[in-house]
Write the structure tokens for this entry.
Amino acid sequence: MFFAGFGGQGIMLAGQMVAQAAILEGKATTFFPSYGPEMRGGTANCTVIVSDKPISSPLIHEADCVMAMNAPSMLKFEPALKSGGLLLLNESLIHQEPKRGDITVCKIAANDLALGLGNARAANMIMLGAFVRASGIISEKTMTQVISDTFGKKKPELAELNLKAFQITA
Amino acid sequence: MSTTYQESPSRVLMKGNEAFAESAIRGGCRYYFGYPITPQNEIPEYMSRELPKNGGHFIQAESEISAINMAYGAGAAGGRVFISSSSPGIALMQEGMSFACCAEVPMVILTVCRCGPGIGGIQPGQADYFQATRGGGNGDYKIPVFAPSSIQEGSDLVFEAMELADKWRNPIIIFTDGLLGQMMEPVTLPEHIDVASSKDIRKSKAWALTGYGADDSSRNTITSLRLQPEVLEKHVHHLFDKYTEIEKTLTRAETIGIEDCDVVLVAYGIVARITKEAIEMLARDGIKAGLIRPISLWPFPHSVFDKISNKAKAVISTELSMGQMIEDVRLAVANRLPVRLLSRTGGMIPTSLEIAERTKKILATM
């Protein structure tokens, strides 16, 4: 899977949470972030693998799933999808159509929905919810637990907001 | 592998750099000296936060030259020292490594290799194979170099190296790269070992500079200077007796299917993982490819190459450099089989598909 967007959208966190959920489900997993002179607003992406068997390469040349939080991310990673793969796109920021006809496209107005919840920063959890339900790679129950563990320790109200965001596309 | 595959429940998701730092602490590191450089910055950050909590000391040095000389001092005093840097920073440390080898001061040095030459770039590379295995310090010296290919293996090796450095009174290098340092995967961390208190250091390290009080007769000396040729020659021979023992006990490699194969791929570190996947792809196309993964880069696992099938058409050194390990591969193969290079550099990393395709192309020319 490729998770991609601009710095500050919570792409890395979403990817790490999928890897954490994979651990809880007893699966093998790797997470590799793009790194470099990164900044808020610059491009960011990560590669996440979840597998039922040990993982050799942490890099992939074709993806089962792409989560694109902005238009440049869709342009970059749509071609990397397998035929029949899943493209989740944030239609609040992506105003063009994907080119391919051999993939499943799932459009979520993540920023608009997040603003409706009162916090634009919850857009990543909205996309994560759609990802979990559309892909079935991780169970909703496990991801709910990961969200509670990630946010609940510091601020219970943040866990509540993020769980609400996670459930919004249910 | 069946779908009932389950990993250990004690695993935690950690970034490579952080897992290596934590394993150093658990292996007894109480002294860390460093200067920031990408892609290993999480290590000084982690150490500055976690080492004081474990009774250790973190100092940000003003340069890598300073950092390794601080390590030299703390190691000479019997402390357990772990330092880290990346390619150009390691270049600055090379003089200190030669001194530490000559003076037999233990320390563990982690390099999270990026790409060069020069300041180069910050993406993963393996073009510092010569830097690690040959070194740029002066004189006859050797440093054992271990190259993990997963965060788990790296964590285990850092932990073990803390002990090995003391045992052999020599620096040990752990050679990783930006990909392994930056990626996250599940790891089971080792248990903390008991660390000797400053008072007890002399019991385990009789040679250490722990102070002699009023009794000048028990004074220890640690030096890398020997001006009399006959004394220095004897000392260098002593070092090389030690290196011979190290070659016997620390040579490590993983092999897959080299006794019956069409081609052997040689790869270490992160590239070995990608190569393993390429080997599975080649198998689906009816090509039997074997793997030699050197875990110790020095001592290089030469003898493993004797087991390569006679029907193998080529041995391919697969590395993120313009061909450095290939020199050791050629020595090990000793003209028995053709040796070829499969390389990317500059921070580019081949996918498993690319390695498989390029292996096929090489085989087509054989």
